[in-house]
């Protein structure tokens, strides 16, 4: 019942937010209320809840509730930040629609329902992308978005058919598996903007999307990636030449994403583009989890997805706040930003810690495990290189902030606390914000007192009450409040990345589809008896049983050295 | 005795052909709706009434979304790139192949579903290869319908929740398509961008004095004269500054008209500034002094050609109708 409540809140909130869009304040109120309700419903999800609709059961798990809570919390925090930095009017309904689709996908026991729901959950990205349809970029972005949707739908359907263990009339059934694996990996890569499919993401970053970027680049790819990973080991964890070749292709894409994404972040000067390429780089780990095809990769992949969702949401919020506070997103004009906005600087450091971690921390170990299982031994240095490159562009951001402030940065108030004080509008030491505030205060003051200035000219100064000062202080310190919100989001990300809030335990439970991944026995098929996940960590119930057509030759049982989970190098044929 | 699935499969293919080849957006939507509704019936045994109702409602909602987008006038589809006959031939060929092939043996669903699904997927290829957003949305919808038919053929009857999820997916695709279709202004901007990126030869207008003398009243003509600032702007940017003027509704003087200053030059595309909080109109505590609204560059044909009032323009009463003929433009008659 708790799951149905969550789904109803999401769908009703989405519809109400869209319907009230002409009324800006009401729409914001409805959106924030719906997101808060969705967060409460996700937190209160009963891990053992189940609903049967027809022949399909929707069941919740601990990790499913945790993941939905992470999505809802990120959405709510970003929308609250958007109240100051610029309301992303279509982000809230799109996020609610995505959460509803992901909620159905990760709770369904039927693979077809799960994959179709996951594909449907990617469609709301158009709500955010449609903001640029009135620009020359509109057609390009629209075409890219629809092509991505087509690829996701094709991949989902092909994967569903593959999971359903159909009797392929083929001499080599691993060809079908390899094709399905390749298409699913391509869908994940394209949806998340992995190199070389990063052009739509780069276009979005140049379109002034602001906070809306997080939906297309973080939330939706993560949800779809979670579904793809849930049965990855049990279905694709079989040896085969075609599968090995497909895995090599995906490994190359993952390596290119890990390296070139970081290089792109270092080469660009707009902080939105830096953020986008940073996100793109970290999606390489999702691809590595796909190439691992091992049950051992499931837990670190889930923990990484949790940390990825919240940390990258915080990073997008950081970029939007910095752009808003300094009225520029160009790194050249943002020299010295750290001096004026130290809280934003602390938030960035916390985000870096949540994303990269340090040796021994759960997120660091998760990244290392994914690199170790997803890449052959000679390429394990890629993980270290990715960390160093990430540190390089983060350090660049911080170093630029320590330089001498530019006029743009000096003009902005920054996130230091301000207290309104009386000053003349001609006072050159007063910041423009303070002058504006005091000008309004002067209008508010109902009592004035006359005084003479230095030249003996009578000057009327407003007499202000405390409530006026408090109100003015609230308005003056909006950058401070926004920076504190970003810092709060980053702190939550860091806590989750280090296994707090029960994230480590939740990431071991998986989602419903994990348990349903093992296909039912097919009376018309021939059980080849292959047990590819013969590692000690593999659950006996999750071990796949590849059903083949009667004419197909049975696959030989792999030796432990050939098992993809035993040695990662075996998956690439090396 | 023909099964109902056969008729439904034929209807699916017909709807797909219409959707893929029609030029009118509304006909395309009707074809899509026919295909989507009939696709839910290509099954053996037929799904439950609730599942069919969900699919039909989903198809109608998806069609409505596309219909609304088509009704806004922003869709100017070029139709099929290969023509109706070719589309029909492709569909029939794919249908025949689908009836003959056996990638899965034995089939868990009707073979007609496989044939219709393959036919729709074949029809979706050409729209997906283009750059027309509306036609691409049609292609994605056809691809989704075809894929669902293939799942039904290869995996057997679909449960009701899957039908519901498929209906939601179709609505999502239609909604995404209707949202992503570029507006009319965007299309014009894109056309302007292409045209103005190419250097245009500056053609000086003929001298007014050299114009042929008209014996009858001459309507006011727009005069565009390149000015010094205009030329300087051309030198600085590839875009050609727009010089626009509307002649005053008065008899044109005989002397050479004064050069007209450019009113609203087109500026190169700017990077959008970071979003800021918009002040509320009724917020009495709006402390931030509202920044002056920057002049928006005129980027559309319609806006550029519309008469623009300048600051130094004086409101003049409309000219009275006069029975006198206009004075000759080229000096004394």
Give the overall shape of chain A.
globular
Tell me the distance between the termini of chain A.
49 Å
Oligomer: heterodimer
* Structural class assignment of chain A: mainly alpha
Which percent band covers the strand fraction of chain A? under 5%
Strand order of the largest sheet of chain A: 1-2
Indicate the percent of residues in helices of chain B.
40-55%
Strand count, sense and barrel status of the largest sheet of chain A are: 2 strands, antiparallel
Number of strands of chain B: 0
Describe the 3D structure.
The complex is a heterodimer of chains A (574) and B (333). By secondary structure, chain A is mainly alpha-helical. Chain A has two domains: 2-405 and 477-515, no CATH class; 432-476, no CATH class. Helices cover 63% and strands 4% of the residues of chain A. Chain A is globular and about 85 Å long. Chain B has helices spanning 4-21, 25-39, 49-71, 84-100, 111-129, 133-155, 160-180, 184-197, 228-236, 301-305. Residues 197-252, 262-290, 297-312 and 322-333 of chain B have low confidence and may be disordered. The chains are: A mainly alpha (574), B mainly alpha (333). At the A-B interface, helix 3, helix 4, helix 5, helix 6 and helix 7 of A face helix 6, helix 7 and helix 8 of B.
């Amino acid at each position: 019942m708790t799951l149905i409540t969550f789904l109803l809140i999401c769908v009703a909130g989405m519809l109400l937010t869209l319907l009230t869009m002409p009324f800006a304040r009401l729409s914001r109120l409805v959106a924030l209320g719906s997101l808060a309700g969705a967060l409460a419903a996700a937190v209160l999800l009963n891990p053992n809840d189940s609903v049967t609709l027809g022949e399909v059961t929707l069941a919740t798990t601990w990790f499913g509730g945790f993941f939905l809570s992470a999505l809802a919390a990120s959405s709510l925090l970003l929308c609250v930040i958007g109240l100051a930095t610029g309301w992303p009017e279509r982000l809230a309904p799109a996020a609610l629609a995505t959460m509803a689709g992901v909620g159905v996908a990760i709770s369904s026991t039927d693979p077809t329902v799960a994959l179709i729901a996951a594909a449907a959950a990617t469609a709301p990205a158009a709500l955010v992308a449609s903001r640029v349809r009135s620009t020359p970029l509109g057609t390009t972005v629209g075409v890219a978005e629809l092509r991505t949707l087509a690829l996701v739908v094709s991949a989902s359907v092909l994967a569903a058919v593959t999971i359903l263990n159909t009797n392929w009339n083929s001499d080599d059934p691993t060809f079908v598996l390899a094709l399905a694996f390749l298409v699913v990996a391509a869908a994940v890569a394209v949806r998340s903007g992995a190199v070389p499919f990063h052009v739509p993401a780069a276009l979005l970053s140049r379109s002034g999307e602001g906070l809306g970027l997080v939906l297309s680049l973080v939330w939706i790819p993560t949800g779809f990636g979670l579904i793809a990973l849930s049965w990855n080991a049990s279905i694709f964890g079989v040896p085969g030449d075609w599968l090995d070749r497909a895995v090599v292709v995906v490994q190359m894409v993952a390596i290119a994403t890990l390296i070139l994404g970081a290089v792109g972040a270092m080469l660009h000067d707009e902080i939105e583009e830096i953020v986008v390429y940073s996100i793109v780089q970290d999606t390489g780990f999702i691809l590595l989890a796909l190439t691992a095809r091992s049950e051992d990769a499931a837990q670190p992949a889930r923990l990484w997805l949790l940390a990825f969702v919240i940390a990258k949401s915080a990073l997008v919020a950081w970029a939007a706040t910095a752009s808003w506070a300094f009225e520029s997103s160009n790194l050249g004009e943002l020299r010295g930003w750290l001096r004026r906005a130290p809280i934003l600087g602390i938030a960035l450091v916390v985000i870096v810690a949540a994303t990269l971690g340090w040796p021994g921390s759960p997120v660091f170990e998760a990244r290392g495990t994914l690199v170790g299982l997803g890449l052959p031994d000679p390429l394990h240095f890629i993980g270290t290189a990715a960390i160093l490159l990430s540190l390089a562009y983060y350090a660049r951001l911080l170093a630029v902030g320590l330089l001498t402030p530019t006029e743009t940065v000096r003009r902005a108030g920054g996130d230091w606390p301000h207290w309104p004080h009386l000053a003349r509008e001609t006072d050159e030491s007063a910041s423009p914000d303070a002058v504006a505030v005091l000008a309004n205060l002067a209008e508010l003051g109902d009592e004035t007192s006359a005084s003479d200035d230095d030249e003996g000219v009578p000057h009327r100064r407003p007499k202000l009450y405390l409530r006026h000062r408090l109100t003015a202080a609230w308005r003056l310190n909006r950058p401070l409040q926004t920076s504190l919100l970003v810092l709060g989001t980053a702190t939550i990300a860091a806590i989750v990345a280090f296994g707090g809030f029960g994230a480590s335990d939740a990431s071991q439970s998986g989602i419903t589809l994990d348990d349903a991944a093992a296909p039912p026995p097919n009376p018309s098929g021939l059980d080849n008896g292959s047990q590819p996940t013969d590692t000690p960590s593999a659950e006996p119930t999750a071990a796949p049983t590849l059903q083949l057509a009667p004419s197909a030759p049975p696959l030989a049982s792999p030796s432990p050295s050939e098992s993809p989970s035993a040695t990662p190098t075996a998956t690439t044929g090396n | 005795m023909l099964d109902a699935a056969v008729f439904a499969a034929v209807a699916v293919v017909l709807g797909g052909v219409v959707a893929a080849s029609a030029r009118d957006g509304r006909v395309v939507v009707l074809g899509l709706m026919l295909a989507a509704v009939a696709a839910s019936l290509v099954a053996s045994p037929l799904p439950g009434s609730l599942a069919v109702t969900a699919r039909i409602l989903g198809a109608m909602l998806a069609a409505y979304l596309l219909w609304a987008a088509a009704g806004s006038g922003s869709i100017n589809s070029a139709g099929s790139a290969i023509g109706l006959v070719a589309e029909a031939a492709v569909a029939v060929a794919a249908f025949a192949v689908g009836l003959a092939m056996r990638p899965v043996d034995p089939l868990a669903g009707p073979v007609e579903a496989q044939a219709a699904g393959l036919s729709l997927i074949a029809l979706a290829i050409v729209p997906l290869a283009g750059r027309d957003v509306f036609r691409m949305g049609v292609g994605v919808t056809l691809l989704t319908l075809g894929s669902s038919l293939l799942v039904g053929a290869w995996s057997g009857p679909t449960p009701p929740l899957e039908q519901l999820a498929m209906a939601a997916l179709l609505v999502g695709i239609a909604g995404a398509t209707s949202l992503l279709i570029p507006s009319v202004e965007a299309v014009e901007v894109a056309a302007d961008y292409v045209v103005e990126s190419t250097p245009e030869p500056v053609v000086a207008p003929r001298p007014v004095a050299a114009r042929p003398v008209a014996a009858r009243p001459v309507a006011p003509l727009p005069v565009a004269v390149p000015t010094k600032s205009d030329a300087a702007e051309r030198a600085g940017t590839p875009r050609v500054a727009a010089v626009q003027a509307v002649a005053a509704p008065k008899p044109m003087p005989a002397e050479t008209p004064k050069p007209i200053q450019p009113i609203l030059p087109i500026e190169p595309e700017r990077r959008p500034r970071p979003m800021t909080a918009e002040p509320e109109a009724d917020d009495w505590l709006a402390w931030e002094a509202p920044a002056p609204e920057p002049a928006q560059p005129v980027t559309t044909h319609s806006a550029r050609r519309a008469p623009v009032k300048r600051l130094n323009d004086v409101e003049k009463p409309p000219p009275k109708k006069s029975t006198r003929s206009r004075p000759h433009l080229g000096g004394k008659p």
